[in-house]
Amino acid sequence: MSQVTSQRWLLPGRVRWTPLLVSFVVLAAVVLLATGVGSVGVAPAEVVQVLWFGATGQLGEAPNSVAATIVWRIRLPRVLLAALVGGSLALSGAAFQGLFRNPLADPYLLGVASGAGFGAALTLIFAPTVPLLAMLGVPLVSFVFGLLSVVVVVLLARQGRTIPMVSLILAGVVLGSSFSAATSFVMLLDRELAANVLAWLLGSFGFASWANIAAILPFVLVAGVATLAASRALNVLQLGDEAALHLGLPVETVKFALIGVATLATAAAVSVSGIIGFVGLMVPHAVRLAFGPDHRTLVPLSALWGALFMVLADLLARTIIAPAEIPVGVITALVGGPFFLYLLRRERRGFG
Amino acid sequence: MSLVAQNLRFAYGDVPVVDGLSLTLSPGEIVGVVGPNGAGKSTLVRLLAGGLEPSSGVVTLDDKNISSLTRFHLARRLAVVPQGGTLPGGFRVHEIVTMGRTPHVGLFSRETTNDMDVVTRALHRTDTWRLRDRRADALSGGEQQRVVLARALAQDPDYLLLDEPTNHLDLRYQVDVLRFVRREAARGVGALVVLHDLNLAARACHRLVVLAKGREVAHGTPHEVLRAERLRDVYHTDVHVFAEPDTDLPVVLPKL
């Protein structure tokens, strides 16, 4: 017995605090730097100053009120929205990859993106003729359609109280392509406005605002807290449904709940930024390669890295060909693709 | 003090898979379940473990219907070693085994030092302590099965249900698994083992239950149960049965 008590310390701890802490500090620094970069450059120290004046509601008191206004009203919401969207996509990606026990799953698997894309296309094309759509606006309509498509997919796939994962994926793929076809058709109805739809589909933070942030923050927070709380359950789920069940895990409840919160967060993110690919797929995968599959580290670190990656991608998107912008979805795909291939090659050589 | 199944029935659609089975598993005893493919052995394990709801009949644990217990409560008393399957990628052996503490720890708190002591003992008792920092998915089939046994031990169960635990293992690991079951039974654990190898079953188990088409065909000591005529009827295969010289235990040899 004493042998046992002296040996248990040889079993290493669980949550990896160091990478979490380092990533958080790096993210905060990058947010400050990115907020300063743009047509009017603002030093990080000044950004911090503006943050103080802005947060305390005395923006007029700031020494350089033009720079202060740009930072507070335009740059900061954009950078923070990018961080929120990147974080929630990567977080949902980690949840989906864990649920499906498949590293190639991503948050768009169940049709959120194509549903939201159809909602956005509908609004952008018909807003001039249908006042209701104009009133509701792209974010709300795309959010509702995104949720709707996942609800339909889950209803189609479920059998009684269980959801077989394979039918879920199939239903998601089928409904996704139906929505994509419908989106293309709607775009054909008005070629001029179709350009706006295309721009939306490729993703952008050009319309970022504090209101957008406030609108999606509750969903992101709920999803973040719920997925973190479920990280131990996600670990057990990796053993397979049957083994997890025999360890006492309420498998179906966990699945329903996680699909629910991850879908809410993804739909919210997509509704304010468009369909930005690769982040939800690549970031959790990269984190897993670097720090292993324990979701207690994987989930929070994915959120942090997703935020970091998106802030940097958006920084590139708005500076490379300034004053014009590249859709941020193009950047994530261009940067993400090769990086992903590199990770796969590294994995094949074996790591850890 | 026992795990009791009373007149269990279960059907997939209209096809009855388990058709009126009763069984008692007491502490310290090893009951072997044998029978042809499709006899309902795995379904019986799932019913006993509460993974499936019987269409009629009850399973009781110390006189309490298991459907009245919480999943975690049940998993603290009863561990299942499911059939086959590989371990998930990337996790270290000790991480997999620590997951066996889930029903004790819950989903929202962390392991105590006592939990880690149980894990440490489970690793030692399955001879996987030396593998603790290895990636579980990179181990051989026999080593992976030991890890699964360690995970079951980490649950600190009173009953162990093992569904074909020797499948796809070489002779050494087959013997290993059954020696493990004997050791745990000697500590007072009640074990139910589904086996295909009748000779191993005869040597490992105190009692054998022969299933065919969801019903009990025979039940008793290996001696009483493993009779040539009965086995021919159950498996539709001719066999010789003779006694092993030293132990007098039955040896079953199929005729080709």
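Residues 169 and 191 of chain B are 20 Å apart (CA to CA).
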